[in-house]
Specification:
Nucleotidyltransferase, domain 5, 2 domains, 5-stranded mixed β-sheet, binds 5'-O-[(R)-(carboxyoxy)(hydroxy)phosphoryl]adenosine, binds zinc ion
């Protein structure tokens, strides 16, 4: 067995309790418990329900991860945990569990940024990240373009959404179309049977926007445009072509994401684009990014869908990189920070 340190990662920022075990760039185990079904009838994640579910799932999920890896907790060399951003109560459960483990095992603890972890996870699949890398981070809560000279300590935001996150837009449009929550995977699925026939708006892409909001995104106008289009159909008593609306909406989102990501790569002289976060699981985003990047000589790296949505492996991956680079661990009193900025990679 390799003598690289074994890192246990804990993720509880939203509705997934994730426990990952990583050694170097190798994924050893990744156990997940999700409370998504408990939130579905509310059409969104209910923070208190999520916190309670994390509490119930924490110990069984840790046990599942160590059983899969065939190790005991004493074999773990360091603990990493999502310190933020995310739901305050949900984060607290993970941070408290991580501190208890670190204290009882006498191991160092790393409180890490969830967004940086979404980027670092790609190393488990595709090896070391080139430095710098460009990262397009698209999740339920965030849509950002990040220049990443060093994922363990130097992450520079170039732009972000000024209203809804991409995943949020997927979820809201899915609701308009009568699809279940969370809507992203359902839109992805039904869009496969649809045609891109409706020209929906591309937010923040006018000439003026490209001066003032060059690398920012906006999906709220698109979401409203889809809702109005569907309402007009319904008012006219005509059937709503759900698959075509889904495909056309998905195209509008991915077009802007990929266009701005490629521009950011070109203008910063970066030749590798990593896409992370739940929306990176989207099949159209993946295929569009691959074909357009290939055409301009940019390498695109997207982790497999299970590593794109929230998981413990991503936290362990970032923790393992911090250990490998000799970054100082956190003190035991670091807080859970629901609005941790992306420029703060570790607490
Ligand atoms: O990263 P993530 O698991 O949680 C956050 O940190 O927010 O992202 C969740 C988001 C949800 O909005 C979900 O609808 C979206 O990712 N998502 C997708 C797909 N799979 C998940 N969006 C589009 N296509 C998908 N295949
Ligand atoms: Zn996430």
């Amino acid at each position: 067995m390799s003598d690289e340190p074994l890192v246990l990662g804990i993720e509880t920022s939203c509705d997934e309790t994730g426990i990952g075990l990583v050694r170097g760039h190798t994924l050893i185990a990744d156990a997940l418990a999700s409370s998504v079904d408990e939130h579905a009838r509310f059409g969104g994640v209910v923070p208190e329900v999520a916190s309670r579910a994390h509490l119930d799932a924490m110990i069984p999920t840790i046990q599942r991860a160590i059983a899969t890896a065939g190790i005991t907790l004493n074999d773990v060399d360091a603990i990493a945990v999502t310190a933020g951003p995310g739901l305050a109560g949900a984060l607290l459960v993970g941070v408290a569990a991580a501190k208890a483990l670190a204290l009882s095992l006498g191991k160092p603890i790393y409180g890490v940024n969830h967004l940086a972890a979404h980027v670092a996870v790609d190393q488990l699949q595709h090896g070391p990240l080139p430095e710098p890398t460009m990262a397009l981070l698209v999740s339920g809560g965030h849509s950002s373009l990040l220049l990443v000279p060093d994922v363990t300590g130097d992450v520079r935001p170039l732009g972000a959404t000024i209203d809804d996150a991409a995943g949020e837009a997927f979820d809201k449009v899915a609701r308009v179309l009568g699809l279940p929550f969370p809507g992203g995977p359902h839109i992805d699925r039904v869009a496969k049977d649809g045609q891109i026939v409706i020209e929906f708006p591309r937010g923040l892409t006018t000439q003026r926007d490209m001066v003032e909001h060059r690398f920012d995104f906006s999906f709220s106008g698109l979401k409203t445009a889809v809702a109005r289009w569907v309402e007009a159909r319904e008012a006219a008593g005509e059937p709503v072509p759900v698959a075509d609306v889904a495909a056309s909406f998905q195209e509008a989102v991915t077009d802007v994401l990929v266009r701005k990501a490629i521009l950011a790569c070109k203008e910063n002289g970066v030749d590798t684009l990593v896409i992370g976060g739940g929306v990176a699981a989207n099949s159209r985003l993946r295929s569009m990014a691959e074909s357009r990047c290939e055409a301009v000589g940019i390498a695109v790296r997207v982790p497999r869908p299970g590593l794109c949505t929230d998981n413990g492996a991503m936290v362990a991956a970032l923790g393992a990189e911090m250990v490998a680079r000799g970054r100082a661990p956190g003190q035991l009193d670091f807080p859970a920070d629901s609005s941790m900025p992306i420029t703060t990679v570790s607490a």
